[in-house]
Amino acid sequence: MATVHAGAILTPEERLARRRLILRDAFSLISLFLITAILFILTLLLFRSFTNHREELGARWKTRGEIALHAGHPEIAIDDLRSALAYVPSRDTEIELASALADAGKTQEATVYFTTLWESAPGDGTINLQLARLAAKDGNESQALFHYQSALDGTWQGNGYDRRREVRLELARYLIARREYIPAHTQLVIAAGNAPDDPAIKLEIAGLLEQAAAPRDALGLYRSLTARADPPIAALEGAGRTAFALGMFRIAAESLRRALAAPLATQQPDNEKATVHEMLDASQRILALYPAFDLPPRSRGERVLSLKRIARERLTECAGSSPAAPPRLASLVSRWDQLQSGLTPPELEQQPELEQSITQLVWDTETLTAQVCGAPAGDDALLMRIAQNPAAVEQE
Predict the structure, then answer these.
(1) What is the pLDDT of residues 314-335, one digit of tens each?
(2) Pick the CATH number of 176-289 from 1.10.3720.10, 3.40.1440.10, 1.25.40.10, 2.60.120.380
(3) What is the DSSP letter of 88?
């Protein structure tokens, strides 16, 4: 039976043909969608595979570059890190490449590279530190100081506290190398105040303080370490050395004795042990010569008269070796001639002002004869050390 549709009558054969056409079109459309989906998935998988391969290659070249850089082969590291950047651009890799350029001596190229990085991140501590080093190498002090300070104020990845301390100590070394001891001392005092309770760090700072012409601050750090139950031998030697330089011979003798008695003393180099022995012997001899105020009056008087004899002989020898004695030397001889001869310890006990006058005359004699006749030797050299700061000899 025919069906009326849109003004036309379709036979059963026509209806079947139309149905088949619709099904064929639907199948074609579905096939197209499936093919498109499959192609999309294949493309995505290929892209991901390619991306993963690039990242793998980039990581591989980066690792090789880092190994070469840490092994001290910056030229090799440059090529490896450039290859890594070609596969995977990375700020960290750019910083490492710039560092490799700097280590390879390509200062100008490294400076340009780091400057470009700095312009996009002026507060980055690592970049500022590298620029400071490059400026220091070029002799540009103002730029070096600017970037060192920027590195101290900047941001750091990881433990910024430790990195800033390392930068501060590096800045102090730079200033010491330029003999700018006052600003170096300032940086070291800050570092010491913020340093953790780590003997190795304190020893490092104390050593730099010595180089910065600040032995008193160095002594304070060394003594804080020698007060421990098991002090490092380097701290004992450092305390003895700085105390000796400051004329604090009681502290020097105590510290140097402990250094020689330490379990590790036998492992110290022979020249170092010889220096310690020499300073200890000198310190003990000075303490034996010095007329300390806590001595019994008779013993102190004996020491004063012994110093008087040593200094008088030094003056006689110096005056005899100078064809035309300077007026200051003649004045000194006149002061000696005014002293009472044949003094005895009991007499000095009754005249404390005379005892002090003789002691001061001894110090003045050793100081002036050293200026006129050159550096003294033996006990005179030790008295010269005392004369530089008599009040410090027995400080504790």
Answers:
(1) 998 888 776 656 777 888 888 9
(2) 1.25.40.10
(3) S
